[in-house]
Amino acid sequence: MAVNSSTHCSPPLNRTLRPRLPFTFLNRTSSRPNFSTEAPNPRLVSVRAHKSGSDGYGYKKSVNLTDTEAPIGSSTSSASSAIDFLTLCNSLKTTKRKGWINHGIKGPESIADHMYRMALMALIAGDIPGVNRERCIKIAIVHDIAEAIVGDITPSDRVPKEIKSRMEQEALNEMCKVLGGGMRAEEIKELWAEYENNASLEANLVKDFDKVEMILQALEYEMEHGKVLDEFFLSTAGKFQTEIGKSWAAEVTSRRNSRLANKVN
To answer: Which domain of life is it from (predicted)?
Structure first.
C-alpha cells in the first residue's frame, strides 16, 4: 500500500520480464512426467518465497498446496494448477492493508478488497477514446497480485522502490509457475508490468483509480473511526494523470472538506 509513491510515464513496455531474485519451490519437481495412463497421485507441496542478499530485506510466505503429477495438457493438470494458484491468492483476501493498520484502523480492508473496488471503478467509468475498459478491469485485478507472497510493503517499511519492484516481479513469476505457465500466466505478467511501468493509457487510468480508492477509503475510515488521515490526501494531491481521476479525486476531497467544515461549525 504505497502512500507517497510518484507516478511517471515510462517508455513502451518491454514484454520480456527478467527474473531478478531467488525464489525457491520446496519439494516441487522442475518438470512433469511423460504422458501416462496411470492415475495422478496427489501430494502436498510447500511453496516458499524469499528474497536473499546483502541488502537486508527479506519477505517470506509459505503456502501448502495440493498438486498432481498429471500429464501435461490434461484437464486434471489444468484444474490442479488453477486451484493451486487460487489457493495461493487466498492471502490477498486475508492480508490487511498495512497503511490502515499503521494508523490504528481496526478490521481494515484486505488487499483483495482494494483491488475489487478498483475493478468496479474501471467498470463504471465513462468511455475514454483509446482506452480499453476490459484491459483496465484486468489490470486493476492483478496490479497488487504479487502481494500474495511479499505482503503489503508500504513506505514505512523503508524498502527502496527498485528492490520492492524486483521482489514483486519475482513473486509474480513464481505465482505464474504455480498457474502452470501458458497464455493466461503470460497475460497476467504483461498486465502487471504494464501497470508497474505506467506504460499505457489504461495503466495511467488504473494508477489514478488506485489513489482514488485509497483516499475514498481514508474518508470512509475518518467517518467511521473519527480519525484524521491527512497523510493519504496530501500524498496523492496533484498526482492524478487522467481527467476521470482528477474529477473523482476532487469529489472525494470536496466531500471531506464539507464534512470537516460542518464539524468545525
So the answer is: Eukaryota
Alpha-carbon distance 167 to 3, whole Å? Answer: 19
Cβ(143)–Cβ(188) below 8 Å = no
Distances in Å between the alpha carbon of 196 and those of 55, 162, 165, 224? 22, 11, 8, 32
Q: Which amino acid appears at position 110 of this protein?
A: S
Convert the pLDDT of each residue in 6-38 to its tens digit: 444 444 444 444 444 444 333 333 333 333 333
Cα–chain center distance at 47: 19
- Quick count: other Cβ atoms within 10 Å of Cβ 142? 21
Rounded distance, CA 82 to CA 74, Å?
Answer: 13
Question: What's the one-letter identity of residue 123?
Answer: L
Q: Residue 216: count other Cβ atoms within 10 Å of its Cβ.
A: 19
- pLDDT tens for each residue of 239-253: 999 999 999 999 999
H/E stretch holding 225 reads: helix 201-225
- Determine the Cα–Cα distance for residues 71 and 78; give it in Å rounded to an integer: 10
**Residue 187 grid cell:** 497475460
Task: Decide if 128 contacts 242 (C-beta within 8 A).
Answer: yes
Task: Report pTM.
Answer: 0.75
